[in-house]
Amino acid sequence: MIYPDNNEINRVAILDFGTNTFNLLIAEISDENKLHVLHTAKEAVKLGEGGITKKIITEQAFERGLTAIERHLERVREYNVHKIYAFATSAIRDASNGKDFIHAVQQKFEIYVLIIPGEREAEMIYRGVRLSFEMDSQPVLILDIGGGSNEFIIANKKEILWKHSFNLGMARLLETFNPSDPISKDEIQELESYLKTELKELFEAAKKFKPKVLVGASGSFETISALIQHRYSGKYKKDDKASREISYEDYQSIHNLLLPSSIEERRKMQGMEPVRVEMIVLASIFINISLSECGIQKIIQSDYALKEGVIAEILNL
User: Fold this and answer.
1) How far, in Å, CA of 183 to CA of 281, rounded?
2) Confidence category of residue 9, pLDDT binned at 50, 70, 90
3) Under CATH, to which class is 6-116 assigned?
4) Is 11 helix (H, G, I), strand (E, B) or coil?
5) Which pLDDT band holds residue 172 (cuts at 50, 70, 90)?
6) Residue of 6 and 134 predicted with greater confidence
7) Residues 148, 228 contacting (CB under 8 angstroms)
8) d(CA 91, CA 48)
9) What does the DSSP 8-state code read for residue 183?
10) Fewest Cβ atoms closer than 10 Å to its Cβ: which of 168, 256, 266, 277?
11) Region at 5 (left for phi over 0; alpha for psi -120 to 50; beta for the rest)
12) CATH assignment of 119-306, given 3.40.50.300, 3.30.420.150, 3.30.9.10, 2.130.10.10?
């Protein structure tokens, strides 16, 4: 990916058009090539709702997407941004009318949007996560749960050892399995069996590289982290760090709380992000299978992912 010379820009906006949310990061790059985050925001779009398994962006989702971009650009104008980088991921790259959406964005807002493949997305997620905590020579398993796809990366501080993008995002699983409310034990077993088959390539890579830590990035992990922090408020203190360790036992406690819960019960949970209410149970099942099959019992939640990875690439970090 080619960026302009860093001397030409010092305030940038990153727009990440995901399947569930459209995310914004506004940052300033200092003369010393350091990053200072000025503003972050997200808009719930559910771009894949009603069409992701049919590989189409519905008319309603199309309009929600354009409205979300308009809101983000209002913020961008307030911050006098010099350069905008916009990226589209799974729902747009797979939809038969994904290019129509990108064309509409370019025509209406005069911004160029790059549709990135899953493997490229994984690379930038790694670069973002690497900024959030001190990695060492030991391999970790990074997981970014999206609405359309999930990116897995096994890496250490120097390099990516293995990566893969699976079209097993939560919006896809929700439409494919259409679970009861609350999800039944039979449906949980069916989903777990499906995931064990679909993720065989991951499990083989885990056996080879033996990561002992799962680093979770993006929305589902942020929600689970928030649920844990509210439930165990005395144990987890708010700080300015970009990552935090989550106790495996506390994660299991939240997992067991989510499994029998109804949508209405989840809406009332402190820390629950509204856009995650329907998908968080499937996400937790996905995380639990990944942990158990890879033999991992240490979890780190990272606030950084794709957007920060773009910044890292701009700065060559």
Assistant:
1) 8
2) low
3) alpha beta
4) strand
5) very high
6) 134
7) no
8) 6
9) P
10) 256
11) beta
12) 3.30.420.150
Q: In terms of Cα–Cα distance, which of 26, 33, 25 is closest to 317? A: 33
Q: Which helix (H) or strand (E) holds 71?
A: helix 59-78
Q: How confident is the model at residue 6 (pLDDT cuts 50, 70, 90)?
A: very low
Q: pTM (2 decimals)?
A: 0.93
Question: Which backbone phi and psi does 15 adopt, to 5 degrees?
Answer: -110, 120
Number of Cβ within 10 Å of residue 14's Cβ equals: 23
Count of C-beta atoms within a 10 Å radius of residue 198:
13
| Whole-number Cα distances in Å, 208 to 63, 181, 203 | 45, 38, 9
Parse the chain into domains and list their residue ranges: 6-116, 119-306
Spatial contact of 98 and 92, defined as CB atoms under 8 Å apart: yes
Q: How many CB atoms lie within 10 A of CB 260?
A: 12
Name the burial class of residue 15, with classes exposed (0-12), middle (13-18) and buried (19+) by CB atoms within 10 angstroms of its CB.
buried
pLDDT 10s digits, 124-154: 999 999 999 999 999 999 999 999 999 999 9
